[in-house]
Fold these 2 entries.
Entry 1:
Amino acid sequence: MPSEKSMEIITDADGITINNPLTFNPKHILECGQVFRYYDHNNHYDLIAGDKMCRIYTNEDFVRIKTEHPLFFTDYFDLSTDYQSIINILNQDYGLAEITQFGHGIRILRQEPFETIISFIISANNNIKRIQGIIERLCDKLGEDRGGYHAFPSPYTMANAPLDFYIGIGAGYRAEYILKTAKMISDGFSLDIINQMPSDEAKKYLARLSGVGPKVADCILLFAYHRTDVFPVDTWIAKVYNEACGHCADRNMIGKYLLERYGNLSGYVQQYLFYYKRENRNLSIKAQIRPS
DNA sequence: GCCCAGGCACATG
DNA sequence: CATGTGCATGGG
């Protein structure tokens, strides 16, 4: 008999209940930097994904996700993936227990591509609080009113807003990138075809969009297409890596090395590392990150 | 005032 | 292919 009960997922008409949520932690899932449209109220989170919303209550032994769209959020929260197996490999084969324990219950969300593209164009050279504010103003002013919240706007709606609108919501120099990219996608740049491409090819394809470079493309592939064979290198990851190595390497080389080391598990490792470092922890596992 | 934030576009060697 | 620079905005 196992010493711990395993996680149990029950779906009903009003939402999803997760008993013994060993690999489902709402705080860590939402605050690890992969998603921006959530609101931390005192005893619950509100989360908006595309045009749908859910409310998440965290209890001792279970998590309750209240929503009119339980099937959508079952997919969104990646509930059919066995995270315990992934964590076991990261701990046993890669010595990463320190970061997987700190970020326990992190999952990689399956987000909508267009929303992810725009969100991460906004994220470039920016901080999370400001990113959230810009996205909130974008949705409040352009997104359809769903009664209490606004949906993420469509490519067509965004393509037809004036440049000044994006400057007005505080996007700064990213305003032109956002508008150009919305126009390209509205004009037929396919986001579905990416599903047919290997990750390296998909990365080049996404980089044709204005405001999408290597790092933003990696984030889109990880968070919208669930490609875990990418390792987005931002300032935090670069910081961790360079501290572990005692020298400065450029982001391109850092990404190349980390991807080679972690392969298909890169995306998971990246999220744990990012969350750990951004929460101001100092790594005592340098040897596990550094090249041998 | 300076430095930084989930970097990118663009110009130049 | 690699390196350098300018860039909106707000917080520390």
Entry 2:
Amino acid sequence: MGANANSSAHGVPVFGLACGFCPLRDWCWSAGLGESALVQIHDIVRRSGSMPAGHQLFCAGDHFTAIYAVRSGSVMTYTTTVNGYQHVHGFHLPGELLGFDAVYPERHRFNAVTLEPSTACFVSYRDISELCRRLPGLQTHILVVMSRELSRQQLCAVGSDATQRVANFLFDVEARLRRKYDSAFEFDLPMSREYIANYLHFTPETMSRVMAKLQRTGVISVDRRHVRLLDVARLGQIAQSDHPA
Amino acid sequence: MGANANSSAHGVPVFGLACGFCPLRDWCWSAGLGESALVQIHDIVRRSGSMPAGHQLFCAGDHFTAIYAVRSGSVMTYTTTVNGYQHVHGFHLPGELLGFDAVYPERHRFNAVTLEPSTACFVSYRDISELCRRLPGLQTHILVVMSRELSRQQLCAVGSDATQRVANFLFDVEARLRRKYDSAFEFDLPMSREYIANYLHFTPETMSRVMAKLQRTGVISVDRRHVRLLDVARLGQIAQSDHPA
DNA sequence: CGTTAGTTTGACGGCACTCAAAAGTTGTGG
DNA sequence: CCACAACTTTTGAGTGCCGTCAAACTAACG
């Protein structure tokens, strides 16, 4: 990959940037890393210019070259099957890393696309692997990130019915977006209901019905993509209520 | 953890063993590692004596101390929710590693129990972390294993209907058990149908109906836990046929 | 041989999918 | 600013898969 200080392999303008000054640094690279570590990370991280909505970061099948960090906006990963059906695999919000799906066999298994105008950082896998050898804390953090990713994957499966899965989803997104908003339990969903439905394994119609019901019963308030969690306790009950058996 | 050469924290007799002579070494620690690496791994790996079916390797909430490798038999991981409902998270067959779920936050999120008389190796996380710093190939392999685990998690979610999920499951298990059997596409399931159903998110009754239908249509042959994949091509169609939309 | 746990089979009901159409929202050009 | 098109979201009616409940059946074990 012939990336230099002025262009990336993806045709997006690139600027060097000090990770030490990034407001998201604690989230991205863990608060445990010292100042000198951040300087070293700075040397290998590149920042993309602003990307429009729908910009493709990488495609399934691409050779694995880099790990990405969402800086602003949001990124969706998805697969396209042989039959042309698309499945949303996950959403990545500011401060979150993506690309680890390709560690083995060094080829991306997902497509990654921006859902809105976004910016991202990226760092070549080769560089970060080498740096890991010098910074044990970083190596641990990579494992932590993958581990967290592993546990998140459980989420979409949790819940026997649609209402439960939506409740879990709302809690998850709220927690991840909390930094962005002043008042808690109120936020804007960066993705369409169609994508949420796909991600949670049901249809847009069902998604719409569930949201309507939650609003009708006063648990949440919805206006377009803006969501307010009104009765957090009740939503928690809905999310956690197990298999009725 | 006060493990020494003769006893483990779990009350199971322990023996030092040379990884270099283990028939599963390529599967466990990747074929890429040289002889000297295997000797170093040998120094930190401990082997359990034979454990009976139902033996608990670790519990959810336990402090994360070690990574385990199934040597013979099989291990199931599962969670127990506050309401007492149990969910099967995965099955681990000979040559497979487990315990990575606890890298963060250094506490196990699952319970792990043997499904049949089994043996396992284990290695303290502290030791292997340190060894990773000296053996870059090992560090990469740890990431590979976690990455593979990540992709496996998709599996249980794949498939809109029960038949499809079962087909995928059978393919997956067959591939992982292939080493154990002379003739391909024929194997014994190490787990009950109840556990499979739980893992795939439906009821034992549905599981039973699906298996019956697959047998009636001549796609597979089932006797108790023994399974033969008769029409592999057809089973592949069933597994891969996407969302009808 | 009796007990127990696991598996199979059947009847019934509900949740979510399908099909269809209306209503609301976004973007574009006149 | 309005008109129109394209898309997303909502709502309704009908159907089917799978969950639920219940009971019969089959190993496995003492």
